[in-house]
Amino acid sequence: MQCPFCASLNSKVIDTRSAEGGIRRRRECEDCGRRFTTYERVAPLRLMVIKQDGRRESFDRDKIVRGIQIACAKRPIETESIEELVSGIESELYHRGSREVTSREIGEMVMHNLRRLDEVAYIRFATIYRRFADVEDLADEIENLMERRQREAVLKAQMRLDI
Q1: Each residue of 42-54: pLDDT tens digit?
Q2: Is it the case that residue 12 has pLDDT exceeding 80?
Q3: What is the full DSSP assignment across 41-91?
C-alpha cells in the first residue's frame, strides 16, 4: 500500500478491524513512520440500467436520490429516511443477482417505497415518472392512493380485532 505522505510502498498493518461494509486497516509507513488508514470493501457488481429507448447506462444511485429529494422537497422527511429508502432499493437490485434492470422497474420500486414514506412525495414523483396526460389521470392516481389507504386501514382494524 502506498503511503499518502511519502509515496513509499513499504508499510505494515498495525491494526485490523471490521468496518461498515468491509475491513478497516491501520497502517504505518516503514520509511517515514507516519500512520494512515485504509479500507477494503467488496467491489459491487456493475449494474446496467436499460432505459425506455433501449439504451444502457451504468446504475447511478445518485439519480434516484436526486429524484426522491425533489419529490420530498419542503416535506417533513429526514435525509436519513431518503438514504434508507435508496439503500433498500439498491440492496434489493443487487441481491437479485441480475446485471441488468429496467428503468421502469427502478421507478416502480421508488414509487412503492415513497408511497409508504410520504403520500405527497409519492404523488409528486408519480406526476413526473408516469407523465400523466392530463389532470384526470392525476386525479385517478390520487383516488387510487386514497382507496389503497382506506383498504389498509380496514385491514389494520381487522388485525387488531383478531388479536
Answers
A1: 776 789 999 999 9
A2: yes
A3: EPPPP--EEE-TTS-EEE--HHHHHHHHHHHTTTSS--HHHHHHHHHHHHH
Q: CA 103, CA 59: separation in Å to the nearest integer?
A: 9
Instruction: Give whole-number Cα distances, 76 to 82, 110, 124, 128, 153, in Å.
Output: 11, 18, 14, 20, 22
The whole-angstrom separation of Cα 134 and Cα 146 is: 19
Give pLDDT tens digits for 119-134: 999 999 998 888 888 8
Interstrand relation of 100-102 and 48-50 (parallel, antiparallel or unpaired): parallel
How many residues would you count in the chain? 163
Side chain identity at 89, as an amino acid letter?
Answer: I
Residue labelled with grid coordinates 500512520: 35
pTM: 0.64
Give the span between the Cα atoms of 73 and 76, in whole angstroms. Answer: 9
Backbone angles phi, psi at 21, to 5 degrees: 80, 10
132: alpha, beta or left? (left if phi > 0; alpha if psi -120 to 50): beta
Q: What is the pLDDT of residue 42?
A: 78
Q: Which residue is it, cell 425506455?
A: 52
